[in-house]
Design goal:
Blueprint: H1 6-17, H2 32-48, H3 53-65, H4 68-76, H5 80-83, H6 87-105, H7 111-122, H8 130-142, H9 145-151, H10 154-165, E1 170-174, E2 191-196, H11 199-213, E3 217-221, H12 229-235, E4 240-246, H13 249-255, H14 260-264, E5 268-276, H15 287-301, E6 304-310, E7 314-320
Parallel strand pairs: 1-2, 1-4, 2-3, 4-5
Antiparallel strand pairs: 5-7, 6-7
Helix pairs in contact: 1-4, 2-3, 3-6, 7-8
Length: about 325
């Protein structure tokens, strides 16, 4: 009948047992060949994407862990350079890279951590220290992609933004995300309307506003396609002193360009418009592309640029409506 190879025995074993359960031992990933391959993939991911080595390594391990065919291949071949050439390894590596990439592109990458951070923030006593509040707030900001990438430069960002806003009494934050949690709301501001289509984010902001921001902040679930009337009616304001469109225009331009016409009619005397200098997921500059989009938007709307500013990973203009 001829000799029976180790691979044939393993193949029979896998076919009879079915899919490996997640609870099974995945120590095969800790064997030297797989450790080397995983480390190599993680290193490449860090070069290409805005991820950390440990984060990339964990995603790769999770992606590999329950793949029967890859496990069988590593049992038959101990040399990492040969494993790397196999069809199954290349396929698994491509899947892992996609998981890293698309995970970085998600606005809320880990809902469990985000929810836990929100609970910690909302459980703070009304009168708490500034340090405790900032720590709890920052944990929430980290859970949302847009505010996470601004977090390292938050003080610089507001140092540039505050003079542009001046003593505005009414502010409209369009597509706000978690941004209102970080905004320095003082006694000058009578009303800060935070509008976003994300129901989860708005529910968080509503709970936060009730406890910490009193009646100064009005979070509204709103979509650009709804037009401005629902916001104006709910806020009781026809024209705001300042509107914020932070990193919003390029996103709308890519997804639903026709809705830019609605943004042209933003009901505010002055508008702060920003874009990204670095891609959300990849390690590459997108400043030239984003600036081009914003310049076209400003020209098409007939806005008058009043000031330009930039921080490490974001840039923008203060414009005035004609």
């Amino acid at each position: 009948a001829g000799s029976v190879t180790k691979c044939q025995i393993l193949d029979t074993r896998y076919k009879t047992r079915g899919t490996i359960q997640k609870t099974m031992n995945d120590s095969w990933l800790d064997l030297k060949p797989m450790r080397e391959l995983i480390d190599d993939l993680a290193e490449k991911a860090v070069r290409d994407y805005r991820t950390e080595p440990d984060q990339a390594r964990e995603i790769i391990r999770q992606s590999f862990a329950n793949n029967n065919e890859l496990r069988q291949t590593t049992a038959c071949e101990k040399r990492p350079e040969y494993i790397a050439r196999t069809r199954i390894f290349k396929k698994c590596a491509a899947v892992a890279r996609k998981k890293i990439y698309y995970g970085l592109r998600r606005y809320r990458a880990d809902d469990k951590k985000f929810n836990a951070a929100v609970s910690s923030l909302l459980s703070l006593p009304t009168k708490t220290t500034a340090a405790r509040f900032r720590a709890a707030r920052d944990a929430v900001l980290i859970g949302h992609a847009s505010t996470r990438e601004r977090l390292l430069y938050l003080s610089d960002f507001y140092a540039k933004l505050s003079p542009l806003i001046g003593k505005a009494k009414t502010i409209l934050d369009v597509g706000c995300g978690s941004q209102p949690l970080a905004f320095p709301i003082d006694n000058t501001i009578r009303l800060y309307v935070a509008a976003d289509s994300d129901a989860v984010v708005i529910s968080v902001l509503q709970a936060w506003a009730r406890k910490f921001a009193k009646k100064r902040v009005l979070p509204l679930r709103w979509d650009i396609a709804d037009g401005w009337a629902p916001i104006q009616e709910a806020a009781g304001v026809k024209t705001f002193d300042v509107a914020l469109m932070l990193k919003l225009v390029p996103v709308v331009g890519r997804r639903k360009r026709r809705l830019l016409q609605t943004l042209h009619k933003t009901p505010a005397r002055k508008i702060v418009i920003t874009g990204c200098r670095v891609a959300l997921a990849k390690n590459r500059s997108i400043e030239r592309r984003e600036k081009g989009m914003l310049r076209r938007f400003i020209a098409e709307a007939g806005f008058k640029p009043l000031a330009e500013f930039a921080i490490e990973n974001e840039f923008g203009w203060l414009v005035e409506r004609p």
